[in-house]
Design brief:
This protein is mostly helical and 202 residues long. It is 65% helix and 6% strand. The protein has eleven helices and three strands. The model has no long low-confidence stretch (mean pLDDT 91).
Length: 202
């Protein structure tokens, strides 16, 4: 496979959110946190295979194979960084949903193929591919309807102790992200991105 010559198909934000919401409702429902590991292993029957030092060797936290039977994950994240591991799985499922035909054509089936792919794909095309999967993962683990409800509830609680009327929205979201992230079992960074995206999601 000539990875240098590939062109990543465009997928818009509205379509990514729609696909993430459909996937969540089909395999999990509206409950949070979304147990993505359970969905991957028990419902999709995809094996999760920890690889020692995957990030340093290939430059990726995780990689789904082109037959969609396995997801290789960095062993350190798998064992010690639950939030990052969960997002990595959601990201790879983003490829499964958004880029299925594209990934089948890549023919990534083993550890060696991952290395070849990472070494040969252009930075620009890889950026497009990863951005789309990151957005899917964010929409999947942080459903906007639930996030909006929780944000409003937390703001009411904060308002009882502090006057936050003069704080601009982005600064407020940054302040709220740490608290809210714990309810979704994701990082505060991913939560802040989702909070700032709320106005664009409706």
């Amino acid at each position: 496979m000539k990875y240098k010559s590939i062109t990543v198909p465009f997928v818009g934000n509205f379509h990514i959110k729609k696909k993430a919401d459909e996937f969540r409702l089909k395999f999990w429902g509206n409950e949070i946190p979304v147990e993505i590991e359970e969905i991957v292993e028990l419902k999709l029957k995809i094996r999760i295979i920890p690889i020692p030092d995957l990030m340093n060797q290939c430059g990726v936290d995780a990689q789904i194979t082109s037959d969609f039977k396995s997801i290789y994950v960095d062993q350190k994240n798998y064992e010690k960084d639950t939030n990052r591991f969960r997002f990595s799985l959601s990201h790879e499922i983003g490829h499964f949903i958004l880029h299925k035909k594209f990934y089948q054509d890549l023919k990534i089936l083993n550890f060696s193929d991952i290395n070849n792919f990472m070494e040969m794909i252009s930075e620009e095309e890889y950026s497009y591919l990863e951005t789309q999967a990151n957005k899917f993962g964010n929409y999947l683990l942080l459903p906007r309807e639930e996030l909006l409800k929780i944000r409003e509830k937390v703001i009411k609680e904060v308002n009882k102790k502090h006057d936050i009327k003069s704080i601009d929205e982005k600064t407020l979201n940054s302040y709220l992200a740490g608290n809210i992230s714990q309810q979704f079992l994701v990082s505060s960074g991913a939560t802040e991105i989702a909070l700032n995206d709320l106005n664009n999601s409706y």
